[in-house]
Amino acid sequence: DAGITQSPRHKVTETGTPVTLRCHQTENHRYMYWYRQDPGHGLRLIHYSYGVKDTDKGEVSDGYSVSRSKTEDFLLTLESATSSQTSVYFCAIRGGDGSGELFFGEGSRLTVL
Amino acid sequence: SQQGEEDPQALSIQEGENATMNCSYKTSINNLQWYRQNSGRGLVHLILIRSNEREKHSGRLRVTLDTSKKSSSLLITASRAADTASYFCATEVDSGGYQKVTFGTGTKLQVIP
Question: Residue B48 and residue A107: Cβ atoms within 8 Å?
């Protein structure tokens, strides 16, 4: 296993509330990614990070912010959750051997009512 | 719109047959990767092919890459019921010197025993 955990694994919240998802790695890898998965869309990149305090936007970044204050943690925040953000969120880390392979967490299922 | 798109969206075959999935993408890439996802789980890396490679094999998997057509194919030979899963292509691109990885929409493969 790549040593990547996501929390919470399941969350139900109401529209307008803030939500933070956490991705934690034990591998000390530089790159971390947040994706959302929805039927018919596959995985879409939200934000990614290439180091502490270094982040960039992906394909669907509106409504999301991220922070990386430590190598091991990459946080995804929905400042004011909307029903359109109901999804399964996956975190991934890029292997540190230069191979380019991504290792995925088990996902966080978020339901916004 | 997404960088990668797979076709077909769904594929149903008999055990023992070969399964072929195709991926098309839009921009120049560093590498292209294929992942597998069992229902409700995170993605698992299968194989990576670099932009200067044309074909790669791994066990029952064969991947081809045609950079002039911006397309790739994944062939699974002698399929088994356990190959039933969704398969995604992913492309790694340089974004300001950093490695951005985006996914296609996926092919859902069903192998009938």
Answer: no
